[in-house]
Specification:
The protein has 2 domains: 3-152 and 315-492, 3-Layer(bba) Sandwich (FAD/NAD(P)-binding domain); 161-311, Elongation Factor Tu (Ef-tu), domain 3 (Beta Barrel), CATH 2.40.30. Helices cover 30% and strands 14% of the residues. It has helices at residues 11-22, 63-73, 77-84, 97-110, 140-150, 195-207, 228-232, 285-292, 317-320, 345-363, 376-386, 418-439, 450-453, 468-473, and strands spanning 3-7, 26-30, 54-57, 86-87, 92-95, 114-117, 130-132, 155-161, 164-166, 176-177, 188-193, 260-266, 273-276, 303-305, 308-314, 333-335. Helix 2 (63-73) packs parallel to helix 10, helix 2 runs parallel beside helix 12 (418-439) and helix 3 crosses helix 4 (97-110).
């Protein structure tokens, strides 16, 4: 049987491996940890989440929800794991990161068609069907090989990680429970500031000492993960209109909206740890403790993890990739995940899903597929393969990537506000996604992920057992894999049309 090699056991890599194996193809999944550590990872588990434990909004009508929903309907392993290990986070989808990684690792290790190999890959097997999903923290030797392969100078940006504090060290006589605009009940702890407290905190933050970056290198930050001290230097009120915005919250002690707020999000199912939402930073550890203990309610905070910084690399995808995630010049080589120039956990998973499906089709001698550009997955794939090379930058899913609604698609009567337009875009995209999945005869392995999300009260010590019953009732993928075939060229790629 033909075999696919997947390099990298992060979110994109495990999703790619899972989809390829679900199509009946043997997969060798390489993960260099724990033999070769990275600056950000802390364990040897697959799909370890190193930054926030939030997969962003899961509120219907948002672009982030649309991307998740497409993956759910397409049998995503990562979405299955997120459903099984979800923690309260208002309208956001947040997970217990340890149980999440354990869940995914167990599923991969137990799959009969996936062989997990714990070693560093230092060269790219161009003659074999291969998916490079090494993420933004690729090893130095492999990064060099990737840059040679893609003919690109090394592109990069700096990313930062938010601190985590022990729940028992939070003063709940000051910090109050609530979700913004009451979405999700009381899922967040909120630390309220008056103006004097905020001014004192701001001054300490902008004068605190940071960890130096690499010398002789220009600093590129990803705007969505800008360190708080960098954001603060843009103006005294920047944080109050960003991660510390108080809108939608009322301090029960005063009955009024605070001057500013720091939100704390539950980190795990035990609720014994909370992360500071949007407080990624690269301050020295001692400075973090000094400055962050100026936050009302965190005066005695015990830090379980300090904020950190790491350097993310990515390739110039529009120069080398098709929308199938396949290299134009080396059709057996695919890329997936953040290294392609998407930013965000779920965006990375989406590119892994597409790469895994297409690598399996290539291995089976089938025509490769492109997701419709009217869907979020198709729109992301179109961006990374077709954006202007000179201005190519990492991107999250947004409605701006989707085609605008036509006049015929807009309501003839009633409101045409942004929220209504966005809901219509979501509805239209999901109809197109469902039609496309049907057109390519795709049958996801897990049929009902939504019911898993609503049954999170039945958590067990073995995360994989939570959906075992559903899996036993699920149908197997009906793809038949033939003998190895000559790699598909770009004119052999199928663009299955949908109404």
């Amino acid at each position: 049987m033909n075999e696919i090699i997947v390099i990298g056991g992060g979110l994109a890599g495990v999703e790619a491996a899972w989809q390829a194996a679900a199509a009946g193809v043997q997969v060798r999944l390489y993960e260099m940890r724990p033999l070769q550590p990275t600056p950000a990872h802390r364990t040897d588990k697959l799909a370890e989440i190193v930054c926030s434990n939030s997969l962003k909004s899961d509120e219907p009508g948002t672009a982030s929800y649309l991307l998740k929903e497409e993956l759910r309907r397409a049998g995503s392993l990562v979405m299955e794991a997120a459903a099984a290990t979800r923690v309260p986070a208002g309208a956001a989808l947040a997970v217990d990161r340890e149980k999440f990684a354990e869940y995914v690792t167990q599923k991969i290790e137990r799959h009969p068609l996936i062989q997990l190999v714990r070693e560093e890959v230092t060269s790219i097997p161009e003659a074999e069907t291969c998916i490079i999903a090494t993420g933004p923290l690729s090893s130095e030797r492999l990064t060099t090989e990737i840059m040679k392969l893609t003919g690109s100078d090394q592109l990069y940006f700096y990313d930062a990680i938010a601190p985590i504090v022990a729940a028992e060290s939070i003063d709940t006589t000051i910090a109050f429970r609530a979700a913004r605009y009451d979405k999700g009940g009381d899922d967040y702890l909120n630390c309220p500031f008056d103006q004097e407290q905020y001014d004192r905190f701001y001054e300490a933050l902008v004068t605190a000492k940071s960890v130096p970056l690499q010398r002789f290198e220009e600093t590129h930050w990803f705007e969505a993960c800008l360190p708080i001290e960098e954001a603060a230097r843009r103006g005294i009120h920047t944080l109050r209109f960003g991660p510390m915005k108080p809108v939608g919250l009322s301090d029960p002690r005063t009955g009024r909206e605070p001057y500013a707020v720091v939100q704390l999000r539950q980190e795990n199912l035990l609720a014994d740890a909370y992360s500071l939402v949007g407080f990624q930073n690269h301050l020295r550890y001692g400075e973090q403790a000094r400055v962050l203990r100026l936050i009302p309610g965190l005066e005695q905070a015990e830090f379980l993890q300090y904020g950190q910084i790491h350097r993310n690399t990515y390739i110039c995808s529009p120069r080398v990739l098709n929308a199938t995630m396949q290299m134009r010049e080396l059709p057996r080589v695919f890329f997936a995940g953040q290294i392609t120039g998407v930013e965000g956990y779920v965006e990375s998973v989406a590119m892994g899903w597409l790469a895994g499906i297409n690598a399996a089709r290539l291995a089976g001698g089938q025509t490769l597929i492109e997701a419709p550009v009217g869907t979020s997955i198709g729109a992301l794939a179109h961006y990374v393969s077709s954006a202007k090379v000179k201005s190519f930058q990492p991107i999250n899913i947004t409605f701006a990537l989707l085609p605008p609604l036509s006049e015929e698609q807009l309501p003839r009567k009633g409101r045409r506000g942004k929220r209504e337009r966005h809901q219509l875009q979501v509805d239209h995209a999901l109809r197109e996604w469902d039609s496309w999945l049907q057109a390519i005869n795709f049958k996801p392995r897990v049929a009902d992920l939504k019911s898993q999300i609503s049954n999170l009260g039945s958590q067990t010590s073995d995360p994989a057992s939570q959906v075992a019953e559903r899996e036993s009732q699920s149908s197997n993928r009906e793809s038949q894999i033939s003998d190895p075939a000559t790699p598909a060229s770009s004119d052999q790629i199928s663009k299955v049309g949908v109404a």
